[in-house]
Amino acid sequence: MDPRSPYYNEALIARGVRIHFNGMEKTNVEEYCVSEGWIRIVSGKTRDRHGRLLTMKVRGKVEPYLEDEPPSENPSG
């Protein structure tokens, strides 16, 4: 979600990345790691000294998925 992140991908975000965490859909995920099994979620409205929302790391089963199919590439035009 943060454009300053080296892993930011606007095309994927436009398609709608969704996260299931421990069997429940989460809508406030800022960052996630499937291999290590954690997500960073926004914790309240408190901000750090740079104006970014504070987050907390929560561990569990992470399952990302996309809302829509990738755009089909039409070679004929």
Protein model, in words:
It is a single chain. The chain has 77 residues and is mainly β. It has one domain. Helices cover 8% and strands 45% of the residues. It contains one helix and six strands, in the order H-E-E-E-E-E-E. It has one helix spanning 10-15; strands at residues 17-21, 24-26, 29-33, 38-47, 53-59, 62-66. The strands form two sheets. The chain has a three-stranded antiparallel sheet with strand order 2-1-6. A three-stranded antiparallel sheet has the order 3-4-5, with no helix packed on it. The longest helix has 6 residues, at 10-15. The termini are far apart. The model has no long low-confidence stretch (mean pLDDT 85).
Domain unit count: 1
What share of residues is helical? under 10%
Q: Which structural category fits the helices and strands?
A: mainly beta
Number of strands: 6
DSSP strand content: over 45%
Residue windows where pLDDT falls under 50 for at least 5 positions: none
Within the largest sheet, what's the order of strands? Answer: 2-1-6
Oligomeric composition of the shown chains:
single chain
Sheet with most strands: 3 strands, antiparallel
Distance from N terminus to C terminus (CA atoms, Å) equals 32 Å
Rounded to an integer, what's the Rg over CA atoms?
15 Å
Average pLDDT works out at 85
Number of H/I helices: 1
Principal-axes shape call: globular
List the secondary-structure elements in sequence, H or E.
HEEEEEE
